[in-house]
Amino acid sequence: MKATAIAPANIAFIKYWGRVDAALRIPSNPSISMNLSACTTTTTVEFSPGLKHDVISEGFDAARITAHLNRLRERAGSALFCRVETHNSFPASAGIASSASGFAALTVAAAAALGLRLSERELAAFARLGSGSACRSIPDGFVKWEGEYARSLYPPDWWDVRDIIVMVESTTKKVSSSEGHDKAATSPFFHKRLDALPRRIARLERALNEKNIQELGEVIEEECLDMHHVMQTQSPPLYYWTGETVNIMELVKKRTVPAYFTIDAGPNAHVICEGKDEARVVELLKGRTLIINKPAAGAHII
Ligand code: DP6
């Protein structure tokens, strides 16, 4: 009746932006990501007959969490309520996608606590219903999400890369990505991006296979700019960058070290490089607050 799971956040190399079914969170395009070792959520779920409603830690979206628990209760044929305790390894206000690690950890912990024996595919599909990007935090390492499911392309030790997150202060209130997805198709560039994706995805998969950082870097920067272009031209437009985000993009673009940027739905810049160049990238970014991530395993019981 009680289980604890840990799940990583992930950085999207090919982004999920827009969906063909909003309620079921079926994405408009496949996406590819890497799990992050230093950005994790640990969640304990305990079902007990004594509870009259779900008890969820302060500061989390209780309605969205309860809706997700209902899906798992229904599958298990259980009417029990539970206590959910969640701890993020990164500050909640950090603008790191805590919904990915959060719903992945919640899914794995709640399924185990209910005695459900779900395959990785089923866990990813359930996590997706809580938050789309959460399905990529279920399998290990480098992950591809297509349609209902996500699967591992390569384990974490396939390639020693880093995601060095530069924490950027944001004064503007973040518009939730859920709302943003629903308006993505209002951008005149939405279909242009979708048309460009099959080739871009093939390039990224080749770069991962060949461990070619320059190829990977060029693809992720192109994809990041293309997705933000769509975001900025949809209606209403979404601007996630701050001046500091752009400063970091320009600094990285100088290519004094082999490092490349990508940005999700927030102001933080993610600087991607190989492990052997970590110290040089840290030096390049000195004076800023950094979170250094390696590729990580997916969600699991602890
Ligand atoms: C820009 O997974 O947060 O980070 O399904 O509504 O929870 P919901 O959206 P979410 O969207 C993430 C968007 C992104 C790109 C990505 O992670 O692929």
From TrEMBL:
<dbReference type="InterPro" id="IPR036554">
    <property type="entry name" value="GHMP_kinase_C_sf"/>
</dbReference>
<comment type="similarity">
    <text>Belongs to the diphosphomevalonate decarboxylase family.</text>
</comment>
<dbReference type="InterPro" id="IPR053859">
    <property type="entry name" value="MVD-like_N"/>
</dbReference>
<dbReference type="GO" id="GO:0005829">
    <property type="term" value="C:cytosol"/>
</dbReference>
<dbReference type="Pfam" id="PF22700">
    <property type="entry name" value="MVD-like_N"/>
</dbReference>
<dbReference type="Pfam" id="PF18376">
    <property type="entry name" value="MDD_C"/>
</dbReference>
<dbReference type="InterPro" id="IPR029765">
    <property type="entry name" value="Mev_diP_decarb"/>
</dbReference>
<keyword id="KW-0456">Lyase</keyword>
<dbReference type="InterPro" id="IPR041431">
    <property type="entry name" value="Mvd1_C"/>
</dbReference>
<feature type="domain" description="Diphosphomevalonate decarboxylase-like N-terminal">
    <location>
        <begin position="7"/>
        <end position="147"/>
    </location>
</feature>
<dbReference type="GO" id="GO:0019287">
    <property type="term" value="P:isopentenyl diphosphate biosynthetic process, mevalonate pathway"/>
</dbReference>
<dbReference type="InterPro" id="IPR005935">
    <property type="entry name" value="Mev_decarb"/>
</dbReference>
<protein>
    <recommendedName>
        <fullName>diphosphomevalonate decarboxylase</fullName>
        <ecNumber>4.1.1.33</ecNumber>
    </recommendedName>
</protein>
<dbReference type="InterPro" id="IPR014721">
    <property type="entry name" value="Ribsml_uS5_D2-typ_fold_subgr"/>
</dbReference>
<keyword id="KW-0067">ATP-binding</keyword>
<feature type="domain" description="Mvd1 C-terminal">
    <location>
        <begin position="164"/>
        <end position="286"/>
    </location>
</feature>
<keyword id="KW-0547">Nucleotide-binding</keyword>
<dbReference type="InterPro" id="IPR020568">
    <property type="entry name" value="Ribosomal_Su5_D2-typ_SF"/>
</dbReference>
<keyword id="KW-0443">Lipid metabolism</keyword>
<keyword id="KW-0444">Lipid biosynthesis</keyword>
<dbReference type="GO" id="GO:0004163">
    <property type="term" value="F:diphosphomevalonate decarboxylase activity"/>
</dbReference>
<dbReference type="GO" id="GO:0005524">
    <property type="term" value="F:ATP binding"/>
</dbReference>
